[in-house]
Amino acid sequence: MCGIAGFYNGIDCDKLIQIAALEKMKDSLIHRGPNENNMYYSSHIGIAHTRLSIIDIIKGQQPMTKKSDGKDIVISYNGEIYNTKELRQMLSSFSLSWETTSDTEVILNGYLAYGTDIFKQLNGIFAFAIYDERIDTLFLVRDHLGVKPLFYQLEKSTLLFASEPKAIFAFGVTPKIDSESWGEVLGLGPARTPGHGIFCNMKEVLPGQFLSIKKGYGSIPIIKEHFYWTLQSYEHKDSYKDTVDYVSYLVRDSVRKQMISDVPICTFLSGGLDSSLVSAISQEYLLEEGKQLSTFSFDFIGNKENFKANSFQSSQDRPYVDIMVNHIHSYHHYLMCDSKTQADYLYKAVDARDTPCMGDIESSLLYFCSKVSNTHPVALTGECADEIFGGYPWFHRTELWKDDYFPWSYDMDMRKMCFQDDFLKEIDIDNYAKNAYHNSIKETPTLDSDSPLEKKRREIAWLNIRWFMATLLNRMDRTSMYSGLEARVPFADWRILEYVFNVPWDMKCHNGQTKSLLIEVGKSYLPNEVLYRKKSPYPKTYDPHYEKMLANRLKEELSDSNAPLNAIIDKKKLDHFLSSPSDYGRPWYGQLMASPQMIAYLLQINYWMKKYSL
After folding, report:
1. Measured between alpha carbons, how far is 304 from 299 in angstroms, rounded to an integer?
2. Could you say which residues of the chain have pLDDT below 70?
3. Which of 327, 373, 438, 508 has its Cβ near the most Cβ atoms within 10 Å?
4. CATH no. for residue 116?
5. Contact 62, 75 (CB under 8 A)
C-alpha cells in the first residue's frame, strides 16, 4: 500500500512554490509508504507518491510514467490488483512495453490499451491518479467498495487530492468546519455520509467512481463524475446448493488471490467465523508452498479476570483462537494492550484518521497494527463478512428497523446529553441523521418483484454496505497504514458483494442459521466450536478502572479554559453523565459504543478541535 497526493491547476503557477507545496503533501503521507517516495511535476500538474513495497520491490517505483505520442501518461497508485495475471494476459495482444512485474504497470498499460474502460476490469483495492498529457486530463479513481481512501478539494483554481485529508492541509489549505460538519461528527459519527470529507469543501471519490479533471474556459478546472461500477439488483435463480458452491468458489478464490506478496504475509485471527475461515484458507495456500501461516490475535490485559458476558459480547476470543491455532497449526502471536496505552492512543487515532473516530476500538487496533507491522507488512482480515452475509443483530431484530434512524445508531439521546442546548439547536443532528438515512434508503437498488419484507431486507443490506462497512473499512485503512501495514480484506471483493446482495434472505439465513452461506463454506475448513460460535464483536477492555481513567482525563482537559470543547459542552450535563452508572447494554454506535466510548469520543473531539484550531 502507499500514499498518493497531488494537484491540478487551472492555470500555470509558480514552479518553485508548487514543488515545495507538493513536497509537504508527500511528506505528510510518509507513514503510508515508508520505503520510497517520489514526485512528478509539469507546468500545472503535481503528483506525489509514498511507497510501501509489496510487489516488485526493485522496479515498482512511482509515480510511474510512460510515453504515448511523445506525451507523458503518469500514474500514482495506492492498492493491490488481485487479477494482475489475468489482466496482463489480456493485454498481451497489444504492442505495449513491460519493464516491471508490478500491478501499477498493468493499470497504466491497461489505460493505454482501453482508456477508462480498464477501470471496470480491475479486481482489487485501489485509489489512483492518472494524468494523460495527450488530453491534459487528470483521472481520480477509487475501488468498487471504497476500501482505499481518496479525498479531493477545489481551492480557487487548484484541484487537490490525497489519500488522507492531512495531505490537503499540508498544501496550505486551512481546515474549517460548519454546522454540516457537526452533523457528520455528532449525528452520524464515527460514520460519515459517502463522499463527505467532514471538513468544509472537502469531498471523497465515491466507491466505484472516477473523476475527470481538465482545464475550463476560465481558471477553474472542470470536474466531471463518472461511475464505472454500481451495485445492481437482479433476480437470483440459483438453487441453494448452487449458491453455496458459487459462494465457496468466490471466497476461496478471493483469499488465494490476495495471498500474492513479495514480503511476509499474515492474518488477523479472532477465533470467530470470518477471520478463522480466511486464516484456514490462507494456511491451505501456504502449505502448498511448504510455508507456515503467521496469525495474530488481540486482547487486553486483565480481561481474563474481569470479563463479564453480556448480550453483545457473549464470550472471550482466546479459547477459540487456541482451538484454531491447534487446528490449522499456524505460528501464532498473542498481542496484549493495557488500559493506559489504549487511552493514550485515542489521540494518535485522531492523528491517523484526521477526524474523531471509533474511540477505544480504533485506538487499540491502531496500537495492535503498529506491533504487527514490525514483522509483517501485509495482513489479511475478516472485515466485511457481517455486512455482506447478514451477521449483525439488526439484520435479524426487526425492532431495530426504525423509520428514521440507522439501525446501529438509533438512540440519539446519548449523543446530545452533554452539549449546550443552543449548540444542539443550531446543528440539529436529529434531522441531519434522518435526512442521511432517507437519502440512502432512496438509493437502494431494488426489484419490482421484491415483497415488502424482501425490499426492507435489501434496504438493511444496502445501509450496511454503504455506511457501516465503509466505517469499518476506513478504520482498517487508517489504523494499518499509519504504521505502514497493508491490510487486505478478502470478503470485500465486488464479485462476492454483488452475488450475495442478490441472494434471497431465506438462503442467507437458511433454516434460521445466521450467515448460513458462510458456515456452509467453512464446513470444509473449521471445527464446529468455531463454525457455530455466536458472533462476538471486536474485543473491548473490561478493566473496571478504565472508564474512571477516561472521565478523569476529560475533566482535566476541560479544566483548561482554552479547551475548545468548553465552547459547546454543558458542564452540568457532563457532570451528571460522568457521575451516572454506565449503561453497558445501551449501544451508542454498533455493538460497542456504551458510556466509555462516549467519553473517549468527547476526548477525541476536543483533541481534534485543538489540533486543527477549529
Report:
1. 9
2. 1, 53-57, 305-315, 581-588, 591-594
3. 508
4. 3.60.20.10
5. yes
As a whole number of angstroms, the distance between CA 272 and CA 283 comes to 16
Element (H, E) at 488: strand 486-488
Residue at 559 is within a domain: no
Asked whether residue 432 is assigned to any structural domain, the reply reads no
Assess contact for 113 and 136: CB atoms under 8 A: no
Last residue of a domain, one of 531, 552, 572: 531
b/e per residue, 562-581, with b = 16+ CB within 10 A?
A: ebbbeebbbeeebeebbeee
- Claim to verify: residue 148 and residue 287 sit in the same structural domain: no
In a domain, 438, yes or no: no
User: What SS3 class is residue 314?
Assistant: coil
Report which DSSP code applies to 206: P
- Domain check: are 214 and 248 in the same one? no
Alpha-carbon distances of 248 from 361, 440, 524, rounded to whole Å: 30, 30, 10
Per residue in 24-51, pLDDT tens?
999 999 999 888 899 999 989 999 999 8
Same domain, 207 and 341: no
DSSP H/E element including 165? helix 165-170
Residue ending a domain, choose from 495, 516, 531: 531
Residue 63: asked if its preceding bond is cis (omega within 30°), the reply is yes
Do 136 and 10 share a domain, yes or no?
Answer: yes
Q: What type of residue is 181?
A: S
Instruction: Clarify whether 2 is annotated catalytic.
Output: yes
Q: Full-prediction pTM beyond 0.85?
A: yes
Query: H-type helices in 512-594, by residue range?
Result: 516-522, 528-531, 546-558, 571-579
Would you call the peptide bond into 190 cis, given omega within 30 degrees of 0 as the criterion? yes
Taking only the tens place, the pLDDT of each residue in 290-317 is 999 999 999 999 877 666 655 556 667 8
Q: Which of 372, 318, 366, 306 is nearest to 342 (CA)?
A: 366
Spot the catalytic one: 2, 337, 384, 509.
2
Specify the pLDDT at position 465.
Answer: 97
Closest CA to 200 of 181, 222, 227: 181
At 308, list the grid cell. 463479564
Q: How far is CA 476 from CA 87, 228, 420, in A?
A: 27, 25, 33
Phi, psi of 365 (to 5 degrees): -65, -35
Is 342 in the same domain as 381? Answer: yes
Please list the alpha-helical segments (H only) found in 411-559: 413-416, 421-427, 429-443, 452-463, 469-481, 494-501, 505-508, 516-522, 528-531, 546-558
Residues 126 and 259 in one domain: no
Question: Do 62 and 38 contact (CB within 8 A), yes or no?
Answer: yes
State the total domains in the chain.
Answer: 2
Same domain, 179 and 255: no
Cβ atoms of 419 and 595 within 8 Å: the answer is no
Give the residue numbers spanning the domain of 185: 2-227
Judgement on whether residues 245 and 187 belong to the same structural domain of the protein: no
